[in-house]
Design brief:
There is one protein chain. With about 120 residues, this protein is mainly beta. It has one domain. The chain contains no helices and nine strands.
């Protein structure tokens, strides 16, 4: 499978601290300073995806999903998502799995490295 994946991230990092504003005297005077750093990296990548469905028993299947970005904005991007599927009937199945998604968006002023992992359960 070949496709396109678009990701938009919104990051905010806030630092708050007390800073002494006058030379060391008795008593010292402090003020609270807050600095906020924001970035909104965005990437659109062409991906190649492999999504086999391997039958284990009559009702159980193993569905590993693997994708990798071959071209686009990110410097490195991949996804791994193994899932086990139990087929209750012709129309109903339960999937249990894990997903790991990694992006490295290395633009000079908007750099971000993101790795997310989660468990997934779905019924269809």
């Amino acid at each position: 499978m070949v496709g396109v994946r678009d990701i938009q991230l919104e990051n905010e990092f806030k630092v708050t601290g007390d800073v002494q504003v006058n030379p060391p005297t008795t008593p010292p005077t402090f003020t609270t300073v807050t600095r906020t750093y924001e970035s909104e990296p965005e990437a659109t990548d062409t991906i190649i995806m492999l999504r086999p469905s391997i039958q284990i028993t009559e009702n159980w299947r193993f569905n590993p999903t693997m994708s990798y970005a071959v071209d686009g904005d990110s410097e490195d991007h991949y996804e791994l998502s193994p899932q086990f599927q139990y087929q209750f009937s012709d129309y109903f199945a339960l999937r249990i799995g894990y997903r790991s998604l990694s992006y490295d968006i290395g633009k000079a002023t908007r750099a971000a490295t993101t790795t997310a992992a989660s468990t997934a359960t779905s019924a269809a």
